[in-house]
């Protein structure tokens, strides 16, 4: 049992170190994937389009760097900026969303990349604290399992 807990502890420790070391690559990959999701955004309900809509609605953002990122997409030429960027769904008309200057007061202008990464970085201290707490419990479990094993081994030879 102690060896199993030690193995799990080492796996978690390696995952944390790898996540810390490669955090910049994670950001870069997230940005490129968000750009791809915008480029391939469509009206049909695929996972990537739903994820973009959810991020934009939840974080009150639009595009990767800002709302004008949508201008480079095929979706913009057909329908304009998606409705998930609208500040108020009642105030967003499709003809306004096809013109960036008319859309600016009606949509969120901030990009989603900065908001997502800053939100993740602000929550990292909570994640690190919880991980540290779990690691302490695992270490206590490892120590107690070793003590129990030692106790059982010592008592086995004292029986008469």
From TrEMBL:
Query: Which regions span the lipid bilayer?
Result: 126-152
Instruction: Output a single Gene Ontology CC term carried by this record.
Output: plasma membrane
Q: Tell me which positions the record assigns to the signal sequence.
A: 1-19
UniProt keyword list: Glycoprotein, Membrane, Signal, Transmembrane, Transmembrane helix
CDD domains in UniProt: TM4SF2_6_like_LEL (cd03161)
Q: Where's it mainly located?
A: membrane
User: Where does the UniProt annotation locate this protein?
Assistant: Membrane
* Entry-linked InterPro entries: Tetraspanin/Peripherin, Tetraspanin_EC2_sf, TSN6/7_LEL
* Membrane topology, record value: Multi-pass membrane protein
Keyword Membrane on entry: yes
User: What does the record list as coiled-coil region(s)?
Assistant: none
- What function does the entry list? May be involved in cell proliferation and cell motility.
Known PANTHER family for this protein?
Answer: TETRASPANIN, TETRASPANIN-6
Please identify the protein, giving its name as recorded.
Answer: Tetraspanin-7
Whichever gene encodes this chain, its name is Tspan6
